[in-house]
């Protein structure tokens, strides 16, 4: 099968998969998605329709090779601290080990971030007994920087509970800011050297416009909603994320992992389904966007499928916008 024919097609068709975090480990592309279970329930603003209780890992020898399902690598029933909602995970390699970094609700219904480890990128992963102290919200994404420091980006509005963490402690009544106030940013925390805790309290990241003014909460085409991902290109840090209600993947660029990040533009226009969630990875000399949509299920929001497509940069480092259904 040619490279071109695999792009923009559902990569996995025997189960529903979403939120793909792709990495190159041991010379292959490994994909760490979440797993949407099928059901007939309705959708809610808090995402409780997502029936997600385990993770599978997938790999491809290269971008045109068949996708291998390595099976279930972690199940919520094996995690002492977690009760449900195994949402979007990520994975990282450090200290000679593979780390699966994932969100789940604890026994009080609060999203936390957990760690599970393996000697093999394909798992299975052994969960730590407790979640990372001081962690909260969803959609962890790990950046291992060139100096080998590891950072965790987290955060998501609405069902992702980021509004509940604006005061330094948990406030279940937390709300989104007024439309004319700065939007809430994702959070960043540096991992400890053993990758099992954070070295610091998560800090808020600022996303600004080209004049240096914060992106406002009412600017729904540009404000952060969920699904942060950070990659480096030409020495700069690219923070990409979902705008949620306007269903775009957009990006902003900065000069260090903590930002600030200046908003640049749209990477992916809306796909079929409410959510949009992605990762960006370099494989050989090309760059790829992994994402999901709900086309395989004919638009059922909680039955999504992972896909990928190539991204290109212009000579100034700007990413060209992708129209998801134009080949
Ligand atoms: O898959 C569950 C949630 O939906 C993810 O955590 C969000 O990013 C959105 O894709």
From TrEMBL:
Recall the GO molecular function terms of this protein's record: hydrolase activity, hydrolyzing O-glycosyl compounds
Q: Where is this site: Important for catalytic activity, responsible for pKa modulation of the active site Glu and correct orientation of both the proton donor and substrate?
A: 139
InterPro entries with a match to the protein in the record: Glyco_hydro_43, Glyco_hydro_beta-prop_sf, Glycosyl_Hydrlase_43_Enz
Gene3D superfamilies, from UniProt?
Glycosyl hydrolase domain, family 43
Report any one BP term from Gene Ontology: xylan catabolic process
One Pfam short name: Glyco_hydro_43
PANTHER family in the record:
ENDO-1,4-BETA-XYLANASE (PTHR43772), PUTATIVE (AFU_ORTHOLOGUE AFUA_2G04480)-RELATED (PTHR43772:SF2)
| Name the record gives this protein | Glycosyl hydrolases family 43
